[in-house]
Design a protein that fits this description.
Layout lengths: L1 H8 L1 H11 L6 H11 L5 H33 L3 H20 L1 H7 L10 H7 L4 H32 L2 H17 L1
Helix pairs in contact: 1-2, 2-3, 2-4, 3-8, 4-7, 4-8, 5-6, 6-8, 8-9
Amino acid sequence: SSYLKFINTYPYLVLFVGSTIDHSGIPFFTVLAGILFASSSIELIPAMITIIFAFLLNDLIFILVGVLYFKKRIEKNTYNLFKTIDITILEKGLALYKRSKNSFYYFSKIIPGIGKYSPILSGISDLNLKISLLKYIIGSFIYFIIFFVPSIFIGDQLQKNSKLYGVLLLISFMGIYKVF
């Protein structure tokens, strides 16, 4: 009950912090924003700006991690620590990034396993930081819309029907995303 009270009192703070630190592969806080919007607890534009700014902050941090940490390790071939994290995701993502840079910026966030770490790949590769961030803003907007719009429907179902139906719909939505 105290969690719900906090969310209702500070919804944009919860969305910002949650969207910044969420690395589950599913943008839970974007889905939460859609549900809150459907219940008229928040407004669209402030929610969208809050979440996209959080995504941008996260992208900037991970670009810097790529530039300052991983790029040097890869150039020196001393990235054994990173191999324990999951080097295969890095290698597959980097190959995808090099094949189609523009598409990668716009759509990488929706690729499970690569999405949240795509800015690291940008940091490892040669990049223009301003152009990369601009492209990630566009990609974040696409990512936001893909998850926000269906979650409005979920929020409507939570209000109109039963909570169980809405929760089952939310779980199946997240499950379908994880499968693809």
